[in-house]
Write a structure and sequence with these properties.
four-stranded antiparallel beta sheet, 10 helices, Rossmann fold, 230 residues, Alpha-Beta Plaits, alpha/beta
C-alpha cells in the first residue's frame, strides 16, 4: 500500500500535534508555516518542514499539493490568511481540504466556500483526525474504554453482495456489527448524513450488503486494523 501524503499548513498547537501524529502513524507529512522558529522546532519530527507564506499562490503551487491525500489548514491567528490559503488550494485542485475554525464567522465563510471538513482546535481532535486520515474508509471512531471502540466505516468492496453471515465479520475479525446506515449521495457531509439517516437496527444474518452501506462496528483497535486492511 502506497504511503499516504498530507500537508499541514499552520504549526500552532493543533497543527504541530496533527503533523506529529500523522508522521508517527506512518504517513509522509509536509509541514508549512511562515514562522521559521516553528519550522525548526518540528523539522526532525516530520518528513519535510518548509517556511513559506501560504497566501503566496506561486510558492504554494510549487509544493505539488494536488497529489496529496489531503491538506489541513490549521492557521490560528485571524482568519484572513486561512480563507486566502483555502481559496488557493481550491484553485490548485487539492482533493480534500480540512480547516481549523477559529470563530463563527470563519466557519460561516468556509461553509459558503464549500468546505465542510471543519475542525475544532483541540489536542484530542488532532489525534482523532490523524486516525481518520491514515485509515482508509474510516468515517469516525468513538473510544468506549482503553481497549474497545466503536468504528464507523464504509463497506469494504469485497463485502458488497454478500450476506452478513457470509461476510464472517465476527468469526474472522472478532468485530461485532452493531448496525448499518446508508450514505446519502446528495450531501458532501458524510457525518451529517449518518446523523440524518435511520439505522436498519440489528442486521439480520441474511441481510445483503449494498454499496452505500456504512457499517457501525464494535471491537478493539487491533482487530479493526486487521479488518481495515481489506
Amino acid at each position: 500500500m502506497a504511503t499516504k501524503k498530507f500537508c499541514i499548513i499552520g504549526l500552532g498547537y493543533f497543527g504541530s500535534n496533527l503533523a506529529i501524529k500523522l508522521t508517527e502513524s506512518g504517513a509522509e507529512v509536509l509541514a508549512i508555516d511562515i514562522d521559521m522558529d516553528k519550522i525548526e522546532s518540528i523539522s526532525d519530527k516530520v518528513t519535510v518542514a518548509i517556511q513559506l507564506d501560504a497566501t503566496d499562490k506561486t510558492a504554494l503551487m510549487a509544493q505539488g499539493l494536488k497529489d496529496f491525500e489531503a491538506v489541513i489548514v490549521a492557521i490560528g491567528e485571524g482568519f484572513e490568511s486561512s480563507i486566502t490559503t483555502t481559496a488557493i488550494l481550491q484553485e490548485i485542485g487539492v482533493k480534500l481540504i480540512y480547516n481549523r475554525i477559529i470563530s463563527p464567522l470563519h466557519e460561516r465563510l468556509l461553509t459558503l466556500m464549500g468546505i465542510h471538513n471543519l475542525l475544532v482546535p483541540e489536542a484530542e481532535a488532532a489525534e482523532h483526525l490523524a486516525k481518520q486520515l491514515i485509515t482508509p474508509g474510516l468515517i469516525d471512531t468513538f473510544p468506549l474504554s482503553k481497549k474497545h471502540s466503536i468504528f464507523i466505516v464504509n463497506i469494504p468492496r469485497k463485502f458488497i453482495g454478500l450476506s452478513v453471515i457470509d461476510s464472517k465479520i465476527r468469526p474472522d475479525y472478532n468485530l461485532n456489527l452493531v448496525t448499518i446506515k446508508k450514505y446519502h449521495e446528495n450531501t458532501s457531509d458524510v457525518k451529517q448524513s449518518i446523523l440524518d439517516t435511520e439505522s436498519i437496527g440489528v442486521p439480520m444474518p441474511t441481510y445483503i450488503f449494498q454499496d452505500n452501506d456504512i457499517l457501525v462496528l464494535f471491537g478493539t483497535e487491533e482487530d479493526f486494523g486487521r479488518f481495515n486492511k481489506l
